[in-house]
Structure formats: C-alpha cells, structure tokens
Write a structure and sequence with these properties.
This protein has 362 residues and is an all-alpha fold. Helix content is 67%, strand content 2%. The chain has a two-stranded antiparallel ribbon. 48% of the residues are buried.
Length: 362
C-alpha cells in the first residue's frame, strides 16, 4: 500500500524513491511484522489463556513429559504470525502484483482451516479436530484454486513447467498435470510443517530458515540479470514476493519470542498449516518446488517418519520408531527436549545450505 501511495509522488519528493527498492520494503516488512508480534503478542496470549482455560489438549499417547510440562499452554498462537504477515505485506508490498494476492489467499485459506481444527480441539477437549476427510477436502480445494490461479498468472512456458535442480535451461512441461502437482506441493508442505510442530520452537525456526532462503530466491528469480547470471528461470513479478517472505520472517521471529522453551503459546494448526502453505506457494511461483524439498528437508524427514511408521505397522504389525513423528522417537529414547530442538535446527540449516547450493551448481 505504501508503495502504491507514495512511490508515484517520488518526482515531487525524491526521498520516496526508496519505496521502489525491494530491499528497503522487505526490511520495512520484517520490522513491521516483528513490531506487531511484540505489541499484540502478550495481550493475545492472555486472551487465549482466558478463553481456553485448560490450554491445548495434550495427546494421551504422547511422551509423559508433555502431559505435565505442557498442560495449560494455549494454542492458536499462529494467529499472531498471520496478523504480522498479512498487515506487513499489505503495508509494504505492491498490491497490483497478482502473485501477492495468490499467496495471501492460500495463506488465509489454510489459516482458516487450521483455526477450525484448533477450535474443535479446544471445544471438545480432545487432540482430534476436524475429521481427516473433511480437512483434506478443504485443503485440496484451496490448493486447487491457488494452483489454477498461479498457472493463469505465470507466463508460458513457465506456467506449467517444472525446473530441475542442477540442470540449466531444463524445464519439464507437465501440461495440466502441473495443477495436481502444485496441489500436492501445497498440501504436502502445509501438513509437513504441521507434523514438525510438536516441541517448543521446533517448527518455527526451520520455517524461518526456509523463509530466508526463499526471500533470496524470489529476489534472484524476479531479477532477469541475476537469474541470467545464475542460469535459473526468471519469473517476471516474482521478486515482489521477497517482501512477503520478509513479512513472514519478521512475524516468525516475533512468534519465536513467545514460543521459545518453555513456550507461552503454541502455534497450532492455525499457524503451521498457513506458513507451510506460504512456503509451498512461493516455491511454485519461483519454479523451485524440488528445491523446497531440500531446503525444507527437515519437514520431509518428519513426514517420511510418519509414513514409514504407519506402513510398517499395517504391513508387519511392528513399529520402526518408538513414536512418530521423528522428534517424539528421540524423546522416547531419553533425549532432552532442548537437545532435540537445537539439533533439528542444525539439520535444517545444513539442508537449507544444500538447497541454496543448487542456485550456483548448474
């Protein structure tokens, strides 16, 4: 909004020319989202505690330490992330950019689904919210609309093309199959972040790491000169998503202040589903869907651990892990929660660096 209102006046007031620069507006978005988190975080947490009273329902089959140590902690803290993300993006981004609205749309849609799930858990005092089939149906509906919108916005042949890491000038034309593929990326990333959100601070830092990586990727992809130098596919208009990534980074950093061990509030599905959708949508726009699997490799590992556990139990009656997702397995083995969290952060950082290496290794 500030860009649309103030930049046209730069001829009369040269200082307003600052708003043309993505770096300036991204910095503004980071600071705005962070400030919103610090200002609205404490009153929101107090309000959630009053409304939820007993806090988020804790899984009875989970680690025993959770029943004692995490009881009474409120959930739906992801609303704070959404508030900072939406306000900062609307304030600092170019609102004529269609990619901005596509990503904000899927973020809001998945956030509403997550809110409904959290609300039902609190109301029923159970760890089960929306029925799985209904939740999945809603997710694929929102994902389908978003995937179609992105295809319509993106110029051919990028619209339905799949870029392959490490290979320059390689673009696999998936045709209309690209839409179900994009839906898979959106729903898969969203649920992968959701599965990772099980310990204090565990999910939000890898989200910040992935977001910072994609802030760089959107900036490079949106600039034809940089994209040409790196031999990656330039996507006109995608650079504006750098501002949105900055907003998510600032909002996530502010949320971490309250989610750091011992957490004052949990992200809940309200936050995990929506931030996962942001990462998925940005990767689709920038044609870095496969790179997302590397940068967000920790989310992939957590998801695979659940798939392996379920498949093994159904086929053989035996469990591979003591408990899934993977972080609970290490809890069962006796690792302290801060040890698990920090080591998983290190893994996320290493995987992100591997993902970023694809920008140069062609």
């Amino acid at each position: 909004m500030l860009f649309n209102l103030l930049y046209p006046l730069s001829d009369q007031l040269p200082v307003l020319n600052l708003f043309r620069y993505l770096t300036f507006r991204t910095g503004g978005a980071i600071m705005t989202a962070l400030l919103i988190s610090f200002v609205f975080g404490p009153p929101l947490i107090r309000w959630l505690k009053r409304r939820q009273k007993e806090g988020q329902p804790i899984r009875t089959d989970g680690p025993a330490s959770h029943i004692l140590g995490k009881a009474g902690t409120p959930t739906m803290g992801g609303f704070l992330i959404l508030l900072g993300l939406l306000v900062a993006t609307l304030l600092w981004a170019d609102l004529t950019n269609q990619y901005i609205w596509a990503v904000l749309g899927v973020t809001t849609g998945f956030g509403i689904i997550g809110f409904a799930d959290d609300f039902l858990k609190i109301r029923r005092r159970t760890s089960h919210g929306l029925p799985a089939k209904i939740k999945f149906l809603l997710q694929i509906t929102v994902a389908g609309i978003t995937a179609y919108a992105i295809v319509q916005i993106t110029p051919a042949p990028l619209a339905t093309g799949l870029a392959v890491p490490f290979l320059k000038d390689t673009l696999l034309n998936l045709g209309w199959f690209f839409i179900p593929f994009a839906m898979f990326v959106l729903v898969g990333t969203s649920n992968a972040v959701n599965l990772t959100d099980g310990l204090d601070g565990l999910a939000i830092v890898p989200v910040m790491i992935a977001t910072a990586c994609f802030a760089l990727i959107t900036y490079l992809v949106g600039n034809a000169v940089f994209a040409g130098y790196l031999q990656i596919h330039a996507v006109p208009g995608a650079g504006e998503l750098t501002v949105l990534c900055g907003a998510l980074l600032g909002a996530s950093l502010g949320f971490l202040w309250f989610n750091a061990p011992p957490a004052m509030v949990f992200m809940g599905d309200t936050g995990s589903l929506s931030v996962g959708a942001v990462l998925g949508a940005v990767s689709i726009v920038t044609k870095h869907e496969l790179v997302l699997a590397m940068i967000g490799g920790l989310f992939v590992l957590e998801t695979v651990s659940v798939i392996v556990q379920v498949a093994s139990f159904k086929l053989t009656g035996k469990r591979v892990f003591q408990m899934a997702p993977l972080h609970h397995h290490f809890e069962k083995k006796g690792w302290a929660e801060p040890t698990i969290v920090i080591r998983f952060w290190i893994i996320a950082s290493v995987l992100a660096l591997i993902g970023l290496s694809t920008l140069k290794l062609r």
